[in-house]
Specification:
Blueprint: E1 18-27, E2 32-41, E3 44-49, E4 61-62, E5 76-81, E6 86-89, E7 91-96, H1 109-118, E8 121-126, H2 137-150, E9 155-159, H3 173-178, E10 183-185, H4 194-207, E11 211-214, H5 219-222, E12 227-228, H6 231-236, E13 240-241, H7 244-260, E14 263-266, H8 272-283, E15 287-292, H9 294-298, E16 318-319, E17 325-326, H10 339-351, E18 356-357, H11 366-369, H12 386-395, H13 402-410, H14 412-415, E19 431-441, E20 460-470, E21 473-477, H15 479-486, E22 489-492
Parallel strand pairs: 1-5, 1-6, 7-8, 8-9, 9-10, 10-11, 11-14, 12-13, 14-15, 15-18
Antiparallel strand pairs: 1-2, 2-3, 4-22, 5-22, 6-19, 16-17, 19-20, 20-21
Helix pairs in contact: 4-7, 7-8
Bound molecules: zinc ion (ZN) (2 copies).
């Protein structure tokens, strides 16, 4: 990446010094799967050693442990007890909506990146469909400056492909690229005109980079629908969106990318033919990549029916008159598909047709999600539940291995030309400490996000993020993580 500006931006922070004692290191890229002591010094992984071998010294004083905020004595590091816990490379989310500028009542860069850190993410890419959308260098400067004062984890930005996301006139892709965008997207909207997308691909070629990330939807087919078109939508009397709305556009743009030698990334795939189109394009040598969301990998159209009393009452539930109450937290774009679609996405993730997981974290105000299903806005939050939901739903039942999940939750960085976090000596500390045994109910302790429209709310999940280090600093710790730390001692090393 040859950029004049750094691609990722975060608020000033204090580099971490800590000793993670006897923690199970797990990094499939490095081939690490064993217990170690890990010393982090000035935000870098300074040492990996056999468990219990790094000196914890002799009682320089109590650990900082979050509370009190006392700095360790000179030469001392905080000790975090890692026994029974796993240390993973921090996750990377290439698709989040931080809602700033213009919709800060839903989320802002501070709350959105707190949610990211709480979910174990060490960096995210923010979408440009804000209010106004990021379609000029001046607006890009504004969000980058906001991130430079608020972001708890590094944030990269995509700028709009077209002015005002209208799909007609290209943005100044060259100037935006020089100012540090990782790529371009009209997410929330398709690039309806093949001619406009072809122009964008030509510009990409001139610039020598800048991934085009595509929200694939043919609005002449989706026509304001609210859920996947099929027997269930007909039964419920809810306007449907046919899967062709997505897959026909994926097929078109895969062909375009191949013909133009361009680099495109397909966002939030949701159905069988889309996965097949991406697989075909890759087999033909096109430079395409794809992502899938936790909700499309775990849920189906049947989940739009609110669940029975087993969980807390679904927010925004309503009587549909025919099929019982509907849950607007299950309304997203693209809509949840069939069980066959879900299985194809999981298989695509396993096979590598789908390169990475992306949450499409999309915060909405409670009042908006309380509207009737057909009028409620589309989108679910996802940063705080992504890992636990996928671990519980796919790894625990033996569908996918933990290594594959970790690989796919970190691979998004490479797709946008960024280094993938690795657990190795001298690497910056981009790691997340998880307890794979811990069970919790999503939302039971509230959310770091400003919004609570999470499709997994109320579900019992296994696997809990305790501590996240992003760009070498502590970005998040649970009260439990703090308690673990206070059990250790500050020491001279
Ligand atoms: Zn989208
Ligand atoms: Zn999106």
């Amino acid at each position: 990446v040859s950029l004049r500006s750094p691609a990722l931006v975060h608020a000033p922070h204090r580099s971490a010094d800590l000793l993670l004692r006897d923690v199970h290191l797990f990094d499939p890229r490095v081939g690490l799967d064993a217990r170690h002591d890990v010393l982090v010094r000035a935000g870098r992984i300074a040492e990996l050693a056999a468990p219990g071998t790094l000196p914890v010294g002799g009682g320089v004083g109590p650990a900082v442990a979050g509370a009190g905020g006392r700095a360790p004595a000179d030469g001392a590091v905080e000790v975090v007890e890692g026994r029974g816990r796993h240390l993973l490379p921090a996750f990377f989310d290439p698709h989040v909506h931080l809602r700033s500028p213009g919709q800060e009542h839903r989320e802002d860069i501070d709350s959105g990146t707190r949610a990211a850190a709480a979910g174990g993410f060490g960096a995210v890419i923010a979408m440009p469909n804000t209010d106004p959308p990021i379609d000029s260098p001046a607006l890009l400067d504004v969000v980058r400056e906001t991130a430079a004062s608020q972001a708890r984890v590094p944030v990269g930005f995509l700028a709009a492909i077209s002015m005002a996301l209208a799909g007609e006139r290209l943005t100044d892709m060259s100037a935006l690229r020089e100012r540090g965008v990782l790529g371009f997207t009209d997410d929330g909207h398709p690039v309806a005109s093949a001619g406009v997308l072809r122009e964008a691909l030509a510009r990409q070629r001139e610039l020598g980079g800048g991934v085009l990330a595509l929200h694939e939807e043919d609005r002449s087919l989706s026509r304001g629908g609210s859920m996947r078109e099929g027997t269930l939508s007909a039964t419920l009397g809810i306007p449907g969106i046919p899967c062709a709305s997505e897959c026909a556009m994926v097929a078109r743009d895969a062909v375009l990318a191949g013909c133009e030698g361009g680099r495109v990334h397909f966002q939030h795939l949701s159905c069988v033919p889309s996965v097949e189109a991406v697989a075909g394009a890759k087999a033909g040598g096109a430079a395409v990549s794809a992502e899938a969301t936790p909700h499309h990998l775990l849920l189906t159209e049947a989940d739009v029916r609110a669940r029975e009393a087993s969980g807390p009452p679904a927010r925004g539930a309503e009587e549909s008159g025919v099929g019982g109450p509907l849950d607007t937290s299950m309304k997203m774009n693209p809509p949840l598909g069939t069980e066959a679609d879900r299985r194809a996405l999981v298989e695509g993730l396993r096979a590598g047709t789908i390169d990475c997981v992306a949450t499409d974290h999309a915060p909405h105000a409670r009042a908006d999600k309380a509207l009737p299903f057909a009028q409620a806005p589309m989108g679910t939050t996802g940063l705080e539940t992504a890992f636990a939901a996928l671990y519980s739903g796919l790894v625990v039942p033996g569908v996918l291995g933990l290594g594959l999940l970790v690989e796919r939750m970190t691979a998004g960085a490479a797709l946008f030309g960024l280094p993938v976090p690795r657990i190795a000596r001298d690497e910056p500390a981009n790691v997340t400490l998880v307890d794979l045994q811990d069970e919790w109910v999503a939302g039971e302790h509230g959310w770091e996000s400003r919004s609570e429209n999470c499709c997994f709310a109320g579900r019992r999940l296994r696997g809990r993020v305790l501590l996240t280090l992003a760009a070498g600093a502590i970005a998040y710790r649970t009260p439990a993580g703090a308690a673990a730390a206070s059990a250790g001692r500050a020491v001279a090393v």
